[in-house]
UniProtKB/TrEMBL annotation, chains A, B:
Its EC number is 1.2.4.1. It comes from Alkaliphilus hydrothermalis. One of its GO terms (molecular function) is pyruvate dehydrogenase (acetyl-transferring) activity. It comes from the Bacteria. It is an enzyme of class 1 (oxidoreductase). InterPro entries: Alpha-ketoacid_DH_E1_comp, DH_E1, PdhA/BkdA, THDP-binding. This is Pyruvate dehydrogenase E1 component subunit alpha. The lineage of its organism: Bacteria, Bacillati, Bacillota, Clostridia, Peptostreptococcales. The keyword Oxidoreductase applies. Its cofactor is thiamine diphosphate. It catalyses: N(6)-[(R)-lipoyl]-L-lysyl-[protein] + pyruvate + H(+) = N(6)-[(R)-S(8)-acetyldihydrolipoyl]-L-lysyl-[protein] + CO2. Keywords: Oxidoreductase, Pyruvate, Thiamine pyrophosphate. Pfam families: E1_dh. Heterodimer of an alpha and a beta chain.
TrEMBL record, chains C, D:
The keyword Repressor does not apply. Residues 4-179 form the Transketolase-like pyrimidine-binding domain. Coiled coil: none annotated. PANTHER family: PYRUVATE DEHYDROGENASE E1 COMPONENT BETA SUBUNIT, PYRUVATE DEHYDROGENASE E1 COMPONENT SUBUNIT BETA. It comes from Alkaliphilus hydrothermalis. Its cofactor is thiamine diphosphate. Pfam families: Transket_pyr, Transketolase_C. One of its GO terms (molecular function) is pyruvate dehydrogenase (acetyl-transferring) activity. InterPro entries: THDP-binding, Transketo_C/PFOR_II, Transketolase-like_Pyr-bd, Transketolase_C. This is Pyruvate dehydrogenase E1 component beta subunit. SMART domains: Transket_pyr.
Amino acid sequence: MLVEKYNPLEGKRLEILDKEGNIINESLVPDLSDERLIELYKTMLLARMTDIKALQYQRQGRMLTYAPNLGQEATQVGSIAATEKRDWLVPAFRELGAWLYKGVPLEQVFLYWYGTEEGSNFPEDVKMLPISVPIASQLNHAVGLGMASNIKGEDDVTIAYVGDGGTSQGEFSEALNFAAVFNTPTVFVISNNHFAISVPRRSQTKAKTLAQKAVAFGMPGIQVDGNDLLAVYAATKEAVDRARRGEGPTLIEAVTYRLGPHTTSDDPTIYREESEVEEWRGKDPLKRLKKYLINKKIWDEGKEESQNDEYEKFVNETFKKVEKYGLVPLEDIFKYQYEEMTPNLVEQYEAYKKYTEGGEK
Amino acid sequence: MLVEKYNPLEGKRLEILDKEGNIINESLVPDLSDERLIELYKTMLLARMTDIKALQYQRQGRMLTYAPNLGQEATQVGSIAATEKRDWLVPAFRELGAWLYKGVPLEQVFLYWYGTEEGSNFPEDVKMLPISVPIASQLNHAVGLGMASNIKGEDDVTIAYVGDGGTSQGEFSEALNFAAVFNTPTVFVISNNHFAISVPRRSQTKAKTLAQKAVAFGMPGIQVDGNDLLAVYAATKEAVDRARRGEGPTLIEAVTYRLGPHTTSDDPTIYREESEVEEWRGKDPLKRLKKYLINKKIWDEGKEESQNDEYEKFVNETFKKVEKYGLVPLEDIFKYQYEEMTPNLVEQYEAYKKYTEGGEK
Amino acid sequence: MPLLNNISAINQALDQEMERDQSVVVYGEDVGYEGGVFRATVGLQKKYGEKRCFDTPLAEAGIVGSAVGMAINGMKPVVEMQFSGFVLPALNQIIGHVARFRNRTRGKYHLPMVIRMPYGGGVRALEHHSESIEDIFAQTPGLKVVIPSTPYDSKGLLLAAIRDPDPVIFLEPKRIYRAFKQEVPEEDYIIPIGKAKIVKEGTDITVVTWGALVREAQKAAKVLEEKGVNIELIDLRTISPLDKGTIIDSVQKTGRFLVIHEAYKSFGPGAELISIVNEGAFLYLEAPPARLTGFDVTVPLPMGEHHFIITPEQIVDKVMEIVSY
Amino acid sequence: MPLLNNISAINQALDQEMERDQSVVVYGEDVGYEGGVFRATVGLQKKYGEKRCFDTPLAEAGIVGSAVGMAINGMKPVVEMQFSGFVLPALNQIIGHVARFRNRTRGKYHLPMVIRMPYGGGVRALEHHSESIEDIFAQTPGLKVVIPSTPYDSKGLLLAAIRDPDPVIFLEPKRIYRAFKQEVPEEDYIIPIGKAKIVKEGTDITVVTWGALVREAQKAAKVLEEKGVNIELIDLRTISPLDKGTIIDSVQKTGRFLVIHEAYKSFGPGAELISIVNEGAFLYLEAPPARLTGFDVTVPLPMGEHHFIITPEQIVDKVMEIVSY
Ligand SMILES: Cc1ncc(C[n+]2csc(CCOP(=O)(O)OP(=O)(O)O)c2C)c(N)n1
Ligand SMILES: Cc1ncc(C[n+]2csc(CCOP(=O)(O)OP(=O)(O)O)c2C)c(N)n1
Ligand SMILES: [Mg+2]
Ligand SMILES: [Mg+2]
């Protein structure tokens, strides 16, 4: 078992693909068909294209806040790929790759960042919770999903994400403790991208690794190279399988790096050196998987280019649709507070409707 | 260093005195003079007498809620004895032995349980925070005391207590994380008395030990026999010394047992077997230290008896004084909300005073 | 009909609903094996097993947060906060998530869940065991807030709360858990959420209160009757959403208004009631709408609590003051 | 006098007070090295060192809880919650401890500390970034709650808050952080906590508001003047303790009352103001005291926020409605 071989307390980290795209651990290469590999790589490409375009739109004043996933694609796609359609996805707020893989339409992703609740009204069959803004508070929801699965005797697994910063929140610990105590089928993925806005990972905790936090809950923990899709997949797959077999939760720390700003309102040059960013660009998860796929002769520059062109068009068109979406109708801000509008809400809604329609405003 | 030799992950627990009062680990016997040993034992006796009498008063309907420390005296007295007068004590709510040692007058202890805020208005020179009812929320206060000591360049240490149940609260983790990050001079003592009201330790967490939770924060952790005054003292002394030298916080899990009810409103027979309680009575921290002291020829049954008589009288007299204390004057409930009563409070106070004095009520 | 006190009525409601609806699960600190520190959940684990009634680690955010996930994944969690003073660590979940899931997802997810907790003073308890914090929940859109005042209501309102498709904060006045008994039907019945109850019709003044103070107001009503003052007593039952209609109709009839609560006065729930009376019955008012409430001081510990507790005598005096305005 | 906006005025107050008083420490998430996501603390770490201005791990209860210990042990912590929406995990500390230490220990310990946080809507932000939660703090005995509306007030009130021997919740209307500049004296000055400010004297109606809405009300006042309506505009400045005197005097003069706030309507802060107007000026009222507030709905995300935001036009219309009652 990987969680036994890669004990974070012994300073071990699971790596399979090096930054040049070479396999350094042949025996651990997960069983992924060429088609699957291409599918995952394409998801990463789409996520990246979306990030790049979103930042452009934002600079053009067409986009509100946006939190790019840039540089973290392998962590997100590699982990979600190890789950199945019937499994639950509980995001933090920066897992674009995972959401796209899970089947959230790009249009909704944009709608969310564009500022409407419709962006979290996912299609019926997408078992994903909405983005959770209060850091780490989503983890207990993930545990609850699993508690319900256990009670119902269903073998759905829940995969939940949190940032390195999120590990300092009290609720992180409460959730992991509940998960272990109730033996829930939960896989916790820490996207350790080295920063919580401006605060570096080293200021977040004195623990050498975040994976070792699992010890506090009597849960297995493992650290993986988060820019290595194969390593992330392998560790997550093992955790998902164990969870599905009823063997309980796992904590995975994926070590990656946020290449972009925290959000579009952030200026990372204030708090980090360009040289550090440059170094991590060299460890880009896309470049590395691309080289691997090219070496495997199942991908090439031509395919890459045409795929990117297709995605660029798709992203642009999707965003244009979103821009036409327009403002939220008055009724919508009242309608979903409760199943039925309370008399009080009806009164407020009617009065305001009358007021605005009366031409008084 | 004890924290290195007794790694909780290796299933080790520090023990010095066995339950028959024999030294099982000669080299670790702490350097405590006979006088000090007697002083500590007497504190334990007084704590026990207080507990026994309080339960009696309660049955007589003379006492409100009370949370006895019975069985946990070595954990409390052994740990606090390793600190100095200038150090801070941050209690949970069940550390009678520690409070008495720290210099809180027994009268105030009773006043607290009797239901008045005056019970937490400790003498000027007693550096102890009041009891904290919301479980585990006091630990961040302890860390803040230490952060201030660090900023001021003072070498006061803070010793803070929490129960086994308290380790599940999010704030437990936040506090330990802050302590490690800010390298505060804090000693965290978990009084693992096996229960959080009715919930047994095993339901609280899947972690084998509570001491191993330290790993999550990159902090040393150690498990000790909490019914062994010498072991508790030794571990705490080392932690206090390290803290004072600026080497940061330590987590100590003291394994003990609550022999009495959770509080006077609790009926432990609902949730635990008498046989378990009986077994732990055999490990009584007082009996064991007494045998050790008798073996050392610095204590005997006669002294024990007369000391107990003295304490019984003292406790009874103190409680009688407390019973005469009477109700809290109206003004007091208004006077301490702010440094100065706000106009609003003055208004409410004056109106009510007038109302009650007017004979209308 | 069997005579039940409030705590047994709550226990019966939980029992019957767990029997009726397999998706109901009940959990919290000491809730399972022991059956709760107030014995509200006694017998449920034995009857329905550890999967449906169980103890949790000591962590309120974990309890409420996991209930959110449970509710999304098909269960109807009824969780207990041991005392309302210990709900504070869960406010991030309650205000930040519980109240918001339906609106946040435009209806994709909603949370049929109940958060029960004993609240209020008068039991001579330690710090944090006597607060009345209905206002924090009442001011949060997306929550419903219910407070029973009798065993009959405890059962009927709790059943309504569990079946409500939206999250309900169910505050139990601990002072009257065992204070009196009442005939409570064995059968299933529901008291609708959002409707106040006119406990006693009257003509001279509208008095609104809830929870443990309903009884105190009833005692006052008797005394007042002897003095020739006939109060209309309304038990709010639901703090949010407020039954404005019943209150306004009553004030339009009586012309006078008093709200009584144990929560702190300033920025407390009474202020809202005074405001809606102003908004809906201003021209009918013959005296300033008034409130009789806790002082703006931290609830005192037992030896000072008598100053804080509202008595029937105070109610009588306050009503007399208003009717003779 | 230099022209400052609100955020620079806050920065200047922190800077000058750290200079003057060695016991002042400033910390929170991103507060140290970066100087805060809104740049309120920019330059302070460089000037006063990492010991007195620093970043913390991401944990609001840890931040506030440690500040309690700091305050007890001789420091004056001024901590930042990154947005008021993220103060929720710290409510157990704030309501359960910060507000209570003085009373709990009958004065042995008190907490000279300030919890700063940006609050309110109008900046087209993500969820949890736009709420107005002054009411939760205002209803908690033991806390003071202050909200500045101008750069001048930001500096003077923040200096007062830091020097106050009791804990102060300092809510900063983020919408006007950089909206306008004002002359702010370099010197040290204090605006007393607990006193409202009459921004504009008037005769026809008393309008009370605070924070970002003071400017909107000023705009409305101009329009109203053209319509022949002369409002008396009061900037509350301190939500708790309330300056009842100023408000009641004003209403006794004008006979009409409107409170405007962005917080939710029901059980919101306006209800308290209406209640004190009832209690103190009932016989002077010529129209029902009214409120213009946020709806009782979770603050909408940006594409729906315009429905929620209170405009000068709405203020004008509401005032006209009241004066023509
Ligand atoms: C409870 C809470 N506090 C503060 C914030 C503001 N905030 C948003 S993102 C963020 C940093 C999160 O860091 P991390 O968990 O590492 O995730 P990352 O942004 O790196 O993906 C902070 C402080 C928040 N959203 N929630
Ligand atoms: C936040 C909070 N939740 C619940 C309670 C109620 N309560 C009081 S003591 C207790 C159990 C505490 O267990 P533990 O921490 O092991 O301490 P012990 O009582 O064993 O000393 C509980 C649940 C509380 N005081 N605070
Ligand atoms: Mg991060
Ligand atoms: Mg315990």
